[in-house]
């Protein structure tokens, strides 16, 4: 493997020259194409340390680290996160942020040398980045391509590199630019390779020369060091204390110490001013010792290249939508159908490879939070959907399975029989349109046995019954189901104008996910499937239809069933694999495999399960069969049937290796009816499971960086090979979809950016860019939707134009000094809630109206909607003119703005909050959620706040702590003496909502707090 330095292809005199030669990665520009060809021709992996990638706008580029495999494909990309800004008097002036946009994600990838953790130059000064790469993402080699200045290099280069190696117990490979590039720029050079013990194993001493240095990567040595000194294990044990300490320290040191700003002061009310503007995958190692090279270069001019070859690789977190009229993938305008036992699209074979995702309707609709797996930080649901399907296509997948309905009550797609939520259904519109543009087909389930919202439990609730058999036999319930089906298949997509039943993006409909009808007469489920399959075909003849069941065999004694030979539980659930799929209106068979839930964790059992169904599908049903869901959990705390069950990541990895080996063999077998597998479930980077599943990847979540992802990708490549070439005797024209009529809405785009302005067949549907994730605002700015587009406004206490916001240390320091808090103190009176400003941190648009669900009228405007820190809560209070303080729970990261809370009754330290949720196995899970505390502005109207408060505890006399008020009196005195003239509260802002008494949601607490209704914990595994 060859490692090249930062700015590998060009290093000019100024950033303008760099902007001029910046090129896209997807599709690749000529420079990247040339490198791809070189890698493929030489059979060598390349690390291009810093590549000028076209940025989010014409004035910015990305400094992107690109890794290319020996096959000429892009294996990973990383956009530099930390930008280097320096202006030394009499020395160098480098302001990278003026022309470079920062990245947002970390990146790792597997290579023959081990797992690579990507970074660029200035990142070296931020050890937490490398600790994340090594300890959380499994990196073994940390790549630090650089162009260090001479001054900083001489002082810090080697010591920082060795420190990163020692801290993480990784190899560090640092290819560096060397020598004088032009009249204005000289680099330090001194390329180094350092082993996990901190010893330099390769070095280029001459700082003025280019050269090559070679060293061996000894992964056995790395493992030995990590075994003898298990730093990763000790780090994990120490993290709780470290993080708690860090949180406390952050409160005390949120900004550098500085004096307050200057502005006019107001009597008895201080004013603060702040100017808003400025003047990773599995380890794959062929041998224990792998040869690696690093190169130091002195680059003075751009490379002029004329190339023909193409190299397609993964996108690195692109922020923008493709154009609305984006072209579908080849075959995308044909409905998938079955010819001679083969799935085909057009005339191309279509064996399935892909994944299951949860809460896609909610995410597409812009839900502010998800329950099964969180939204990544600073990523909206629509953006996550867009990036997920695009990434799926890049990795070689062709199919995603999900639900056509929402699974959370506050986001319900159907709130009563025949009553549908238009905002929620627009999430399904977006999912279909983004999948169409990416070239991903969708299997959509109309309903599910498990989900309380949108599933059988809700239909039974509407009917006032708890008998499972009623869902399958009662005419009214079956009528409601048919009404939902008709509403879905006849819906017209508000984005692209296509009726769902005419959209070939839909591969197939699942009638009912994982039916259950225990104790029902034999054939009940099969009769329902037949009736509803015929109905779906009558209203939508274009799409395939299947069941969505696990595939249990009917009673009795079938040895393929889970539990055999000791139990008949599977045969008693109401399913009958053969009968359920015998209807002529059922096009193909489905099976699922939940080896942990079923206590069948031997991979050989899974192989036998698939083989049995493949044989019956081929010989009895004469139909294809697909493994629609399968997964292997990771848990150290599970009990099933009174039996303790656990599984480690390593056990999952081994299981997935064996499982996908069997899957690939069955797919390749001549005449096989087995036509694909979809795993459960793929987590986007930054998604985390709920606390009921332990957070992180939870039970079944799989990150792209997990070792278990490798056999999944290998399966995708195998499927791509199987899908090459047409199917004999195919006549495609009869299954071609009618073309869409979609106007060009580019005239409505904001600054020429796709995914902004308006959309729809008539270009008359406004896009909320803040929700869609197409607004380009600084993370410290509020995104404000407008009729014409959107604007970005820096938070109070930050300076900039909204696209870039920098902290104003003096303003933030003065703001911190303006608040008083008694440690662990909570106001005994509820006070009055103040509406949360839309331009403050913690605000989110709520297109589904979920914050108002279950709350009094108007209460949806109270409280933070996104996670907030203590500083963010202070900033929000500053932006709300009537705010006199706030209550905050720093564990929940929630805050409510307040007025008229009396600080002399601030001693109601409440009990620790307990959060409850239901885990995927139906159990109630409780976990601590911190305490609420009150913070008061020192310039508040104490007299008014305390005039009507008399706090009485049971069996005790009324009490207060009047000494507290001296703190506020002292502040007023300083203000009167002029000491507070640097503090000025800006006028304007949003008017406060009419005052409403808050109510307590903490039983037994004397404290009255209006808390948000916690989201319903949906099952994250059916």
From TrEMBL:
UniProt xrefs under Pfam families: CN_hydrolase, EGF_3, GH5_mannosidase
Region (Disordered): 979-1022
GO cellular component: extracellular region
UniProt cross-references to InterPro entries, sorted A to Z: C-N_Hydrolase, C-N_Hydrolase_sf, EGF, EGF-like_Ca-bd_dom, EGF-type_Asp/Asn_hydroxyl_site, GH, Glyco_hydro_5, Glyco_hydro_5_CS
GO biological process: polysaccharide catabolic process
Keywords from the UniProt entry: Disulfide bond, EGF-like domain, Glycosidase, Hydrolase, Secreted, Signal
Its EC number(s): 3.2.1.78
Matches recorded under CDD domains: EGF_CA (cd00054), nit (cd07572)
PANTHER family for the chain: MANNAN ENDO-1,4-BETA-MANNOSIDASE 1 (PTHR31451:SF39), PTHR31451
Family: Belongs to the glycosyl hydrolase 5 (cellulase A) family.
Protein name: mannan endo-1,4-beta-mannosidase
Provenance organism: Micractinium conductrix
Taxonomy of the source species: Eukaryota, Viridiplantae, Chlorophyta, core chlorophytes, Trebouxiophyceae
């Amino acid at each position: 493997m060859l490692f090249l330095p930062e700015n590998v292809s060009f290093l000019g005199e100024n950033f303008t020259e760099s902007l001029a030669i910046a090129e896209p990665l997807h599709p690749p520009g000529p420079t990247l194409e040339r490198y791809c060809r070189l890698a493929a021709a030489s059979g060598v992996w390349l690390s291009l340390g810093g590549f000028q990638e076209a940025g989010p706008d014409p004035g910015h580029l990305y400094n992107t680290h690109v890794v290319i495999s020996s096959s000429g494909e892009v294996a990973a990309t990383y956009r530099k996160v930390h930008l280097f800004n320096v202006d030394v008097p009499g020395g160098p002036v480098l302001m990278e942020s003026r022309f470079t946009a920062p990245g947002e994600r970390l990146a790792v990838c597997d290579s023959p040398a081990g797992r690579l953790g990507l970074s660029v130059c200035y990142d070296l000064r931020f050890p937490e980045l490398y600790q994340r790469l090594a300890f959380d993402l499994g990196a073994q080699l940390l790549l630090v391509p650089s162009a260090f200045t001479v001054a900083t290099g001489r002082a810090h280069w080697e010591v920082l590199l060795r420190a990163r190696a020692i801290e993480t117990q990784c190899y560090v490979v640092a290819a560096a630019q060397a020598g004088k590039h032009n009249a204005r720029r000289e680099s330090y050079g001194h390329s180094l390779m350092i082993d996990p013990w901190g010893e330099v194993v390769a070095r280029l001493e001459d700082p003025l020369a280019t050269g090559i240095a070679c060293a061996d990567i000894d992964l056995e040595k790395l493992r030995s060091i990590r075994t003898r000194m298990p730093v990763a294990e000790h780090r994990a044990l120490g993290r709780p204390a470290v993080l708690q300490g860090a949180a406390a320290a952050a409160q005390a040191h949120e900004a550098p110490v500085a004096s307050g700003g200057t502005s006019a002061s107001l009597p008895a009310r201080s004013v603060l001013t702040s100017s808003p503007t400025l003047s990773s995958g599995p380890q794959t190692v062929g041998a224990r010792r792998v040869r690696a090279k690093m190169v130091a270069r002195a680059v003075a001019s751009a490379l002029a290249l004329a190339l023909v070859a193409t190299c397609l690789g993964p996108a690195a977190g692109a922020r923008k939508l493709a154009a609305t009229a984006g072209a579908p993938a080849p075959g995308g305008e044909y409905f998938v159908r079955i010819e001679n036992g083969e799935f085909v699209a057009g005339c191309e074979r279509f064996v399935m490879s892909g994944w299951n995702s949860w809460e896609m309707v909610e995410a597409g609709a812009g839900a502010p939070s998800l329950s099964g797996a969180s939204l990544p930080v600073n990523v909206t649901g629509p953006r996550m959907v867009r990036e997920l399907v695009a990434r799926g296509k890049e990795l070689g997948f062709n199919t995603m399975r999900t639900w056509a309905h929402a699974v959370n009550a506050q986001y319900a797609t159907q709130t009563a029989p025949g009553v549908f939520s238009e905002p929620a259904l627009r999430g399904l519109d977006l999912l279909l349109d983004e999948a169409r543009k990416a070239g991903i087909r969708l299997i959509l389930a109309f309903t599910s046995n498990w989900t309380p919202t949108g599933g059988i439990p809700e239909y039974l609730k509407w009917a006032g019954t708890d008998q499972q058999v009623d869902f399958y036999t009662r005419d009214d319930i079956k009528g409601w189901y048919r009404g939902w089906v008709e509403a879905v298949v006849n819906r017209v997509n508000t984005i692209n104008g296509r009726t769902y039943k005419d959209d070939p993006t839909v591969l197939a409909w699942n009638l009912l996910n994982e039916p259950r009808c225990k104790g029902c007469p034999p054939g009940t489920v099969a009769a329902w499937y037949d009736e509803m399959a015929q109905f779906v075909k009558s209203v939508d003849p274009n799409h395939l239809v299947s069941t969505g069941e696990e595939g249990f065999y009917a009673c009795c004694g079938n040895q393929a069933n889970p539990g055999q030979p000791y139990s008949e539980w599977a045969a008693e659930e109401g399913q009958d694999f053969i009968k359920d799929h015998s209807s002529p209106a059922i096009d193909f068979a489905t099976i699922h495999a939940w080896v942990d839930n079923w206590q069948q964790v031997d991979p050989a059992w899974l192989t036998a399960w698939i083989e049995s169904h493949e044989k019956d599908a081929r010989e009895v049903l004469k139909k294809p069969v697909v493994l629609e869901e399968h997964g292997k959990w990771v848990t150290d705390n599970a009990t099933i049937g009174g039996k303790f069950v656990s599984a480690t990541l390593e056990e999952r990895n081994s299981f997935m290796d064996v499982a996908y080996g069997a899957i690939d063999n069955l797919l390749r077998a001549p005449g096989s009816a087995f036509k694909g597998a979809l795993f459960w479930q793929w987590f986007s980077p930054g998604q985390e499971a709920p606390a009921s599943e332990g957070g992180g990847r939870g039970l079944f979540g799989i990150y792209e960086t997990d070792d278990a992802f490798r056999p999944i990708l290998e399966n995708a490549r195998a499927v791509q090979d199987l899908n090459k070439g047409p199917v004999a005797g195919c006549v495609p024209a009869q299954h071609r979809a009618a073309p869409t009529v979609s106007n060009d809405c580019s005239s409505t785009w904001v600054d020429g950016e796709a995914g902004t302005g308006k959309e729809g067949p008539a270009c008359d549907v406004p896009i909320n860019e803040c929700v869609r994730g197409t607004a380009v605002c600084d993370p410290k700015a509020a995104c404000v939707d407008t009729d014409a587009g959107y604007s970005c406004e820096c938070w109070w206490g930050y300076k900039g134009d909204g696209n870039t916001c920098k902290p104003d240390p003096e303003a933030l320091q003065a703001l911190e000094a303006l608040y008083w808090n008694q440690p662990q103190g909570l106001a005994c009176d509820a006070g009055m809630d103040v509406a949360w400003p839309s331009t403050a941190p913690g605000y989110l648009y709520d297109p589904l109206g979920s914050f108002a669900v279950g709350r009094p009228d108007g209460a949806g405007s109270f409280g933070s909607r996104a996670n907030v820190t203590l500083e963010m809560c202070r900033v929000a209070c500053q932006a709300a003119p009537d705010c006199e303080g706030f209550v905050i729970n720093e564990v929940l990261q929630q805050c409510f703005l307040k007025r008229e809370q009396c600080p002399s009754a601030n001693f109601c330290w409440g009990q620790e909050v307990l959060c409850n949720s239901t885990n995927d196995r139906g159990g109630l899970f409780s976990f601590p959620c911190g305490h609420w505390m009150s913070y008061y502005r020192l310039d508040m109207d104490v007299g008014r706040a305390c005039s009507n408060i008399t706090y009485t505890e049971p069996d005790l006399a009324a009490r207060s702590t009047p000494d507290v008020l001296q703190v506020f009196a002292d502040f007023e005195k300083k203000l009167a003496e002029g000491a507070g003239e640097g503090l000025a509260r800006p006028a304007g802002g949003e008017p406060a909502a009419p005052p409403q008494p808050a109510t307590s949601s903490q039983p037994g607490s004397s404290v009255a707090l209006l808390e948000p209704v916690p989201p319903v914990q949906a099952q994250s595994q059916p």
